[in-house]
Amino acid sequence: MLQKEGSDISGRRNGNGRCTKESRDAYMETNRASQIKVRYIDLFCGIGGFRLAAQNAAKLLGVEPECVFSSDIDTSCQDAYEANFGERPVGDITKVNAEEVPTHDLLLAGFPCQPFSIIGNRKGFEDTRGTLFFDMNRIVRTSHN
To answer: Residue ranges of the domains in the chain?
Structure first.
């Protein structure tokens, strides 16, 4: 967990074992000045569900998120994502030059699971969608060399 030393809120919990709103708000105010920034990319982003979850979690943790790249092949999803976040994702990830993906700290990916799922045909890497894993790997390896 990303936490500044000396800013523990674990001792202030309500009856459900969760931090109280007051202790969370105090923690957030204490850490606002030294806020941690996280740059992330959003692959297979769809309409932005992972991005929204990441932004909400970051807000609770006092982290400043910045989406620096997004990609989805579906143009309808691109339209919705752009309407939701004001940024249009690039298209087919297999055609993205990994060197052009900005430096990032975190990779979000709504990776297609159908090739590996019991609900799908379970063709794994024999299904084109299953090979998209290697494109994620290509981007991570390039961005962290």
So the answer is: 35-143
Single out the catalytic residue among 19, 67, 77, 113.
113
pLDDT in tens, 119-133: 767 666 666 666 677
pTM of the model: 0.67
Structure tokens at 49: 């569900």
Q: Where would I find the beta strands (DSSP E) of the chain?
A: 36-43, 63-71, 106-109
Taking CA atoms, 37 is separated from 15, 55, 65, 118, 130, in Å, by 32, 12, 6, 38, 32
Pick the CATH number of 35-143 from 1.10.1370.30, 2.20.28.10, 3.40.50.150, 3.40.50.720: 3.40.50.150
Catalytic residue check, 113: yes
